[in-house]
């Protein structure tokens, strides 16, 4: 493809997960697309991630993957490192400096000064891209994903065909589903506001072509989310109040409320390790706390009075079922932690929505 293709800023948020991030990067640098910028934004990792990513860029850190073969040919990469305090105080030459180097020969590393969470961590990188890179699209990728070489091209092509499309999602496979890599995790989702939960199309199904038709969907999973720049500028970025979980659903609903469509493009494919980015590092308490709090926060923003009523009834039974499961499956200390998290999630929601 020529450099006339729309410019895409590919944003990968890293937090103590350099091994997954390197595998994701290796797949990105093999895509069939020429006009892109890769931005790795690090949320103040404590596992030496920055050095590992820099070593990868210099060809000193190889990648082992079941899905993508490591290539020496595109190393070294030119590394551009920026600290958070400098993100918005730079002279207007960043894009010009980058454009002297081919897309597959450069990488931008953004160093956040603390763990801002998923929403604000990504927002800082989006704001950097909008200010300095002038992208046509923003692609949000979880660091525990691997992309097919055609993935970006297929999503951009689909978005370019219809001005009503505000965001695009690929077909998402499990990275490893009992040894298989052809089992679908996400092919778009329909969302039921009466119970406050979504239903993924083709979830846990072996891909036999049953989800090969493009469709308009209600929500898109944040592990791979292509957004038109003008749409983001109209509806706003991720709401940082969520910190982690449900911020992608919130953004999807705002995009739809503004009159745009969310599109599922099955020709674009990625693989997702599911939960590695956060669940492996967050405590049981933190995960349950944000899942409960943010679900309530989302529902009170977007549901009608009737939908809130039916959701509340459903949610009470949902919480009771989870309490039983926690007590059955977990030891006493973990059970206490999970129950406290649910309680804190509800009380924190009440503080935000008095």
From TrEMBL:
<dbReference type="Pfam" id="PF13641">
    <property type="entry name" value="Glyco_tranf_2_3"/>
</dbReference>
<dbReference type="InterPro" id="IPR029044">
    <property type="entry name" value="Nucleotide-diphossugar_trans"/>
</dbReference>
<keyword id="KW-0808">Transferase</keyword>
<keyword id="KW-0472">Membrane</keyword>
<dbReference type="GO" id="GO:0016757">
    <property type="term" value="F:glycosyltransferase activity"/>
</dbReference>
<feature type="transmembrane region" description="Helical">
    <location>
        <begin position="311"/>
        <end position="328"/>
    </location>
</feature>
<keyword id="KW-0328">Glycosyltransferase</keyword>
<comment type="similarity">
    <text>Belongs to the glycosyltransferase 2 family.</text>
</comment>
<keyword id="KW-1133">Transmembrane helix</keyword>
<protein>
    <submittedName>
        <fullName>Glycosyl transferase GT2 family</fullName>
    </submittedName>
</protein>
<keyword id="KW-0812">Transmembrane</keyword>
């Amino acid at each position: 493809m020529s450099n006339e293709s729309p410019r895409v800023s590919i944003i990968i948020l890293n937090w103590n997960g350099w091994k997954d991030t390197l595998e994701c990067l290796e797949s990105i640098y093999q895509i069939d697309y020429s006009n892109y910028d890769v931005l790795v934004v690090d949320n103040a990792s404590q596992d030496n991630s920055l050095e590992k990513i820099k070593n990868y860029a210099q060809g000193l850190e190889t990648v082992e993957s079941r899905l993508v073969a490591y290539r020496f040919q595109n190393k070294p990469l030119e590394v551009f490192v920026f600290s958070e305090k400098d993100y918005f105080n730079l002279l207007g030459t960043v894009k010009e400096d980058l454009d002297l180097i081919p897309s597959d020969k450069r990488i931008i590393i953004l160093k956040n000064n603390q763990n801002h969470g998923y929403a604000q961590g990504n927002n800082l990188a989006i704001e950097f891209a909008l200010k300095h890179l002038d992208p046509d699209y923003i692609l949000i990728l979880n660091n525990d994903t691997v992309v097919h070489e055609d993935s970006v091209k297929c999503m951009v092509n689909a978005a370019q065909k219809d001005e009503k499309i505000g965001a695009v999602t690929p077909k998402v496979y499990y990275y490893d589903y009992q040894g298989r890599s052809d089992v679908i995790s996400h092919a778009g989702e329909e969302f039921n506001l009466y119970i406050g939960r979504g239903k993924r199309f083709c979830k846990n199904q072996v891909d036999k072509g049953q989800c090969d038709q493009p469709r308009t969907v209600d929500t898109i999973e944040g592990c791979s989310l292509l957004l038109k720049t003008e749409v983001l500028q109209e509806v706003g970025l991720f709401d940082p109040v969520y910190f982690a979980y449900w911020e992608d659903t919130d953004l999807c609903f705002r995009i739809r409320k503004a009159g745009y469509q969310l599109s599922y493009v099955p020709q674009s494919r990625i693989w997702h390790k599911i939960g590695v980015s956060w669940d492996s590092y967050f405590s049981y308490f933190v995960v349950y706390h944000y899942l409960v709090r943010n679900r309530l926060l989302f529902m009170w923003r977007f549901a009608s009075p009737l939908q809130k009523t039916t959701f509340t009834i459903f949610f009470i039974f949902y919480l009771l079922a989870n309490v039983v499961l926690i007590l059955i499956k977990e030891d006493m200390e973990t059970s206490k932690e999970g129950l406290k998290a649910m309680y804190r999630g509800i009380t924190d929601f009440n503080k935000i929505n008095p």
